[in-house]
Amino acid sequence: MRITDAKVIVTCPGRNFVTLKIVTDEGVTGVGDATLNGRELAVAAYLTEHVVPALIGRDPARIEDTWQYLYKGAYWRRGPVTMSAIAAVDTALWDILGKVAGLPVYRLLGGRSREGVTVYGHANAETAEAVLAEVAWYVERGYRAVRVQTGVPGLAATYGVSGDKTFYEPADAAIATEAVWSTERYLNTVPSVFARVRDEFGPDLKLLHDVHHRLTPIEAARLGRSLEPYALTWMEDPVPAELQEGFRLIRQHTTTPIAVGEVFNTVWDCQQLITEQLIDYIRATVVHAGGISHLRRIFDLAALHHVRSGSHGATDLSPVCMAAALHVDISIPNFGLQEYMRHTGETDAVFPHGYRFENGYLLPSEEPGLGVDIDEELAAKYPYQPKALPVNRLEDGSMHSW
Ligand code: GCO
Ligand code: MG
Q1: Which residue among 29, 84, 98, 304 sits deepest, i.e. has the most Cβ atoms within 10 Å of its Cβ?
Q2: What pTM, to 2 d.p., does this model score?
Q3: Is the torsion defined by CA of 38, 29, 96, 350 positive or negative?
Q4: Cα separations (Å) of 292 from 58, 235, 266, 297?
């Protein structure tokens, strides 16, 4: 079997997605997600200019060799654009392999290690009062884990809180909107919110919170310590993670578990975090971390060091990424949690898929391959729209991490 074509499909059914569809001479096709929120066309160009021409004529079953070819062959290693492009190829090749074998991809990865993939939903609202109703909405639908984000008094807008509760989407304008941030106001608000949520919902519900890379290590240590009475499952992205040893300081002060990794692209971004046991959950996922093949390497290293998976699953990762992530989640020994933000009806229609939500779990499709596709005709009806993620400034105007 040979690869005869690879199409780069950019579509915007409510938000932008980049999809690679690999076509073979035997008519079997495979899909891979290549979406990088706010930088979609950079990955599309990388694929079109530098990857697709090299794929034509290759044997689609040589997944590892193709991965190494694209990684080592670029010379310029790593980075989100390169690794999202490699991820899309890798994912599509696993899809093809599954279809050829007549097996869902998770069976090629070693088979089922659990009955379902526990997911967490997103409760977000301006006030603590209103967030209680949001958490209840998820609990009524069977969710066992909920991420809680609220507004911060004195700040006009806060990460994680959106007007549209069902479909959270931060990339909202062609030129980035500017938000204002205050660490002091934030640190003074969050613990009281979790006190109310824990009090109302009892000890069994898993609670999570995303700091979105906004603190310094000692501030994160203070937050983690102040949240200890409410037994969070994790505090996410407490600080920007370029400085991996910075996490030692957080660890010295708090037992609140730490989750990191949605912006990581390779195992090298988290090697120290994992081997020094500075984190508890690694949140890399298929699309931004080199595909199924490389994500498995990250999770295998993590398993050796008591670190569990907690893959990113925001709406800017397409249903193709979600389908692939679920095959990994159900098969690895050290699965922790999977993020699940529902896609809009338009997105679900463009990406027909067989995974489904049941009783707090997502279940991967049992169809051969990944069990997801792209409806190219429908995709063509939603042209690309330039959208950027917001930026953040402190109250005095200094730039800050968003
Ligand atoms: C999450 C993430 C997202 C990111 C988004 C950026 O935990 O789900 O932090 O909300 O902000 O994926 O494109
Ligand atoms: Mg996050």
Answers
A1: 84
A2: 0.97
A3: positive
A4: 19, 25, 12, 9
